[in-house]
Automatic annotation (TrEMBL):
<dbReference type="InterPro" id="IPR021149">
    <property type="entry name" value="OligosaccharylTrfase_OST3/OST6"/>
</dbReference>
<protein>
    <submittedName>
        <fullName>Putative oligosaccharyl transferase complex, subunit OST3/OST6</fullName>
    </submittedName>
</protein>
<keyword id="KW-0732">Signal</keyword>
<keyword id="KW-0808">Transferase</keyword>
<dbReference type="GO" id="GO:0018279">
    <property type="term" value="P:protein N-linked glycosylation via asparagine"/>
</dbReference>
<keyword id="KW-0472">Membrane</keyword>
<dbReference type="GO" id="GO:0008250">
    <property type="term" value="C:oligosaccharyltransferase complex"/>
</dbReference>
<dbReference type="GO" id="GO:0016740">
    <property type="term" value="F:transferase activity"/>
</dbReference>
<keyword id="KW-1133">Transmembrane helix</keyword>
<dbReference type="Pfam" id="PF04756">
    <property type="entry name" value="OST3_OST6"/>
</dbReference>
<keyword id="KW-0812">Transmembrane</keyword>
<keyword id="KW-0256">Endoplasmic reticulum</keyword>
<comment type="similarity">
    <text>Belongs to the OST3/OST6 family.</text>
</comment>
<comment type="function">
    <text>Subunit of the oligosaccharyl transferase (OST) complex that catalyzes the initial transfer of a defined glycan (Glc(3)Man(9)GlcNAc(2) in eukaryotes) from the lipid carrier dolichol-pyrophosphate to an asparagine residue within an Asn-X-Ser/Thr consensus motif in nascent polypeptide chains, the first step in protein N-glycosylation. N-glycosylation occurs cotranslationally and the complex associates with the Sec61 complex at the channel-forming translocon complex that mediates protein translocation across the endoplasmic reticulum (ER). All subunits are required for a maximal enzyme activity.</text>
</comment>
């Protein structure tokens, strides 16, 4: 049965009214729309382009009921290791997922991602000139007066972002939840291999045929522990310190030593650790090997050379420490010698 023209017209009016009402409701609830976009993202990071960023900044009356913490990215530069964009995005995702996990009911800040390919205009409006780059768009901020984040500590990027957000917005991100080094599957597999190997290991240990019965192994292990302790390797592992940095003023130049007492690069620790290890090996040779040489002249010459090299190395470490920290190291004679 065909509908009359009046009924058809009435049905069309009702449909258009419902669509208009739905669009109006969506425009009046940007927080709900952001939450919807956030729920579809694995880490809760909302992908925005030139149109959507304007939708949530310029089209919403200030003060907005939320802030936007946005990172700028360029996929074509991901292969440039000196920029570290891939690692930076992973750290940004960690901050976002950790915030959502720690604060499931707080909707005062949203984490967003802008890619250069789809947002050339947005890069220009924010004045982004280098990468990586992050900005906080507060409830009353626009494009030009948003707050860029300063220099990040490369050893704790996610933590630095969390501190910046808390300082600027008084909103606590909470602890950063990093994924475990080993998955459950890996742990089970390793446990099975260890259990299968235990009987064989016990048999070899009782027979005295294991590497642990070799003095050379313990000598090498002692050297490793000595180097590990004096080079600051544990600090580098805990803080995830990079081996080097790229000079911002000259991208083709690498920085292996950084003049700041608050940060240590991996190359610095390895260099100082190597120098200290040389001194330790020389002293060990003087006390354990040189004393067995029967020729006194050879003993004296080698001892003088070893002491000279040791003093030179210690002096270089002192000079490096003074340059890096600004603190001087001075020797003091006993007062009775004056």
């Amino acid at each position: 049965m065909a509908l009359s023209p009046k009924l058809t017209f009435l049905f069309l009016i009702i449909t258009l009214s419902s669509v208009s009402a739905s669009a109006s409701a969506s425009n009046d609830d940007p927080v709900g729309e952001l939450l919807s976009l956030q729920s579809t993202s694995k880490y809760g990071v909302i992908y925005l382009d030139d149109q959507s960023i304007s939708r949530f900044i310029t089209s919403v009356t200030t003060p907005r009921p939320y802030s936007i913490f946005v990172t700028f990215d360029a996929v074509e530069f991901h292969d440039r290791a000196e920029l570290g964009l891939v690692k930076f995005m992973k750290e940004f995702n960690l901050v976002s997922s950790s915030f959502i996990k720690n604060n499931p009911n707080i909707t005062k800040i949203f984490f967003c991602h802008i890619e250069f390919k789809d947002s050339n205009l947005t890069f220009t409006r924010f004045g982004v000139r280098n990468l990586p780059h992050v900005r906080l768009v507060g409830p009353t901020h626009g494009f030009s007066d948003s707050e860029p984040m300063g220099t990040l500590d490369p050893t704790r990027i996610a933590e630095s972002m969390a501190e910046f957000i808390e300082f600027k917005t008084n909103i606590s991100v909470g602890p950063i939840h990093r994924p475990p080094l080993l998955s459950r599957y890996h742990i089970i597999l390793i446990s099975i291999v260890i259990l299968a190997f235990i009987p064989y290991a016990i048999k070899k240990f009782i027979a005295g045929q294991t590497p642990f019965h070799s003095p050379k192994l313990w000598l090498a292990f002692s050297l490793f522990v000595y180097f590990f302790s004096v080079s600051g390797c544990m600090h580098n592992i805990i803080r995830k310190a990079p081996m080097y940095l790229v000079d911002r003023n000259n991208p083709s130049k690498l920085m292996f030593f950084y003049q700041s007492p608050s940060m240590q690069l991996g190359a610095e620790g390895f260099t100082v650790g190597f120098l200290y290890t040389v001194v330790g090996l020389l002293l060990a040779f003087l006390t354990q090997g040189l004393v067995k040489v029967s020729n006194v002249i050879v003993q004296r010459v080698v001892m003088i050379l070893a002491l000279f090299v040791s003093l030179f190395i210690v002096n270089q470490v002192v000079v490096l420490t003074n340059w890096k920290t600004g603190y001087g190291i001075h020797g003091f004679w006993p007062s009775s010698w004056n």
